[in-house]
Amino acid sequence: MGTSRRNFLRMGTFALTGVAVGPGLSSFATKRKDILGIQLYTVRDDMQKDPVGTLKQLADMGYKNVEHANYVNRKFYGYSAKDFKKILGDVGLMMPSGHVQFGLNDWDSTKNSFTDNWKFTIEDAVTVGQSHLINPWMNEDIRADYNKLMQLLELFNKSGALCKRSGLKFGYHNHDFEFNTHINNKLLYDIILDKTDPNLVVQELDIGNMFNGGGRATDVIRKHPGRFQMMHVKDEIKSKNGEMGDKYESTVLGKGILPVKEIVDLARKSGGTSYFIIEQESYQNKTPIECSKEDYIVMKKWGF
Fold first, then answer.
1. Which pTM was predicted?
2. For the chain, what is the domain count?
3. 95: containing domain
């Protein structure tokens, strides 16, 4: 399967940049038209070997939107924001979303401002045509320290305000630990939702990751209606060596144990979800490209 998602994020080998809701996506959201995309981490090895060819294959399948999983040294998969936007356009794709790492070190307390690095990240997101910057990780030391957690969530709101001034939205993408970690006798994910301003911080709900941590998407959506503008759509099967060191790994949609269609339908109805992003990290002896095509076909059958 290659590098695990958890280790990939821990090592900091990619910064994930944002989901964009530029003018085009804003009109989609106004009309309540669902947006279907794929997280490029699904085809991470292919993107490393041949990013242009891989993007063309996805476009040929029918995909119109992708979400990136590689932003390093102000480059997307090795290309500048301007060049990567052209590559996407040449094959008929948009990249309205992506993942970028964000943390306490992105705030410069001596200047009482965000670092230049974070400001450059926002600038590049605008250049490439994005509207959302999504942070996909929270360091372990923050999860164990309530004061640090409050500092980070305050920065989430501040980042949301800064992004808003550039026409972007800032967001957070969960893994598993948010659903099995308690601080001051309160579930971490509940704290995140309680302390972040929904007008400034978008939640991208990963239904597979949360299942690994004991969370159930239908319960969470019913408990917090309207909070999940974005969703990572996954299915899961039992595994001896799961993707996050747990007992499950992702599989082709409709082939696993999650009620994915029920979750998606509920998200459309009451979750506030309009952007559905396919992500599959394990492949059960198929290729990532084969799985990407199968996943796309399933979502189209479900009305996307």
1. 0.90
2. 1
3. 5-301
